[in-house]
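Subject line: Sequence and fold of a protein, written as structure tokens
Enclosed: The protein record, placed directly beneath this head.
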Amino acid sequence: MASSEAEMVPIETEAAAPEAEPESEPEPEPAEASLNARDPEQRRLALRELAERGLGDGELEQVVGLVLDPDQQVRRLALGVLSTRADRVDDATIRQALMDPADQVRATAVRLAAERGSRDLVLLAPLVAARRWPLTQAAALDLLPELLASTSTLGETELDLLLTSIGEMDSPPTMEEGPSIARLSRAAGISRLVGSLSLPDVRRLGAVRILVEGEEAPEILRALATLVSDPLDEIREVAEVAADAIGRTDDPIGGSEFFEDAPLAPAEAERIASLARSLRDADEAVRHLARSGLGGVERNRVLAWAREAMHTGDLDTASAAAETVGALRLYEIGVDILNRAIELPLEAREPFLKALARVRLEDLVGLLGQVDESRKPEAIRVLWNSSGPPVLPHLRAHLDDPSIPVRMAVLEVMGESGDPSCVDVARFVLETDQSPPLRAAAVRVIALANIDASAAMTRAMGDADPIVRAAALEELTPGLGREADPFLLRGLSDGDEPVRRAAMNQLASREDNDHEFVWSAFRQCRPEERNELGSVFSYSNQAALTELALMHYGSPDQEERVLALELAGWSRSQACLEASIQSLQDPVPAVRAAAAAALGRLRDTSAVRALGNAIEDPFPEVRVEAVRALGVIDDEAVLGFLVAALQDADGGVRTVASEVLTQWSSPAVAKRLAGVLAVPNLRGAATELLKKIGPSSQELLIDVLLHGSAEVVPIVGGLLGDIVGVDRLAGRLGSTEADTRLRAVEGIGAIGGPEAIDALIGVLSDPDERIRLRATRFLAALGDPRGAQAIVDAALNDPVPEIVAAAEEALIRLGVRSGDPQVA
């Protein structure tokens, strides 16, 4: 028992803590709208104003944070604002928004994801069948066909998800869903859908459903008719209808402007296919016989087979058809080869590229006029890959195309060519094109050629659009060497965050070890820019920070010493830790304050004693920074120093100490405190200390809940109820910080009682799935039937499977079934 008493010592204070002063009333909310306002209506108003004037770089992170706002309308408005800068939104934000519990919010998230192009297809594809969430499904059905059409290739993963989702729908597409799914059939590619009819699982049904909604083309009917013996009733019924349609048609199936004869019989088609595959045989004699055999077949019959193979054959058959087209020069179906190549991943295109390479160049370029406009950018890349530099003069004419993606594709292939003459074209685009992404692409072309880069840098850094300026710093700086220095310094103070970030990344990645230039760059930065730059160096070039800090922390110039200590805080090095501790003895208060702030960034437990001593510094600004630094270090000795700071003679220090204690989180202290609270004869001293700290002990108590054993939960719950109360914690459920809301839920659940039920029910619609999950489990544990209906809604509608499972388990514990009409 003596050892347990000894363990209590770090929690005791060196001086008696004063009785907690009554907390002052929060300052009234400012009248103007603010993204940080406590009132959700003011946050909504701020977002509407932002939507009207446009989202700036400095506001992006704030708006992203509102995707987890507890107010549903705020979340929806935030996603709408972010859609104007969709390219800057990170993947995690999209995933979070698409799992929002509110259908309206998820529908808006679908539109935001679609603005980012094809990168979110894997998330959007399953939503076309999300009938439980009608607004989300409608948005996905509306946007996905166009999104698929605009992407160069639909990956196998995305196609599988799409087919699986539609195949798993409890019934065939409705009249409302049909038109959009018909558009999906065209966007996904008929050949790939027909190829999916041989799949062994529910994806086959998905392919059938999509094809049925699409056009009634002969090749589709013929493919569907082969499924008359399918084990699934729905597929057999579709196959029978397709077979009847084939039997009723007056025109020969497969007829077209090229093929006017009767359709190929299966045996004839298989014979041609066998000869085509033999063209790839390792034996030259076999290949010769195959060419001779194909030469003996009527040209229009081979064309008919090749065309259908391109449209509906699997990859192996289509590849054999492409080689046949090349061998027999069947260029009438060049556009079919081009379209099939566009649909394929790069590694599968080789046979198609070889076939296209044999087409006369003028005819090949003419194929661009026959492909769908949305496919033209990828068609340009296919033509470049098939024909190389000779095609470039023919593609330049498309730099006048009204479509930005088309012009971008031309510029990209010109850059890949490495042709010096392309620099003149790129320079012209940089100076005259109205599209910022095109001008940025022109910068990349010039950088690849490394011709006249200095003049291009001057021109690009004067561009009105930050995309172009950032591209110049990223692409041109490495080739300019020291000549880039003035541009880097200019970029560091640019008003747009992407440009500053590009300049910082380039500065941090320099290999010339010119520390004096880096030092001058830090000195010229404004404080907020200096923080950004320090953060970048912290991740990519800590060695430079360490060298600069150690070179200047002993400077006779106090401003240099302050800056050196700022860099020391970012360096994460042991040498800078020791220099910062030493600088707590500097004769200048501003330097000592900077040293304390640096130790706060370093967060090393070896600095706790020195920071504790700094709480006795004669200057309040030093004591404030020491308290703040202690507040972010996880160490048992910290609590005593923070409690002692509550009785500081300076009101500002006391205020900061109270704020820090309110927010302080220390797993180490929480575990020790949990152990003490579990021992009855030690519990009284710990309880008395916590009550003296007052409401500021809230976070520490919640830490005990998170890190302690189940046996201390009722003890801590009772303390939270006495010291803090449900109402105070419930007030934090409106915080825009998800972690703050989650911790409040932990506290409310531990307190329990009737007041806790309403608060926990309210957060079952929170956007953070962790909060919904914990609230569901607490409601089940508390056993109050008032939570039943809210849990039923969660079981039926929540998009997160783990929450649905927890809700169903909670209903079992409450003795309620989700379909029970008695649920009020």
The first helix runs from residue 2 to 7. Residues 725-814 form a domain with the Leucine-rich Repeat Variant fold (CATH 1.25.10.10).
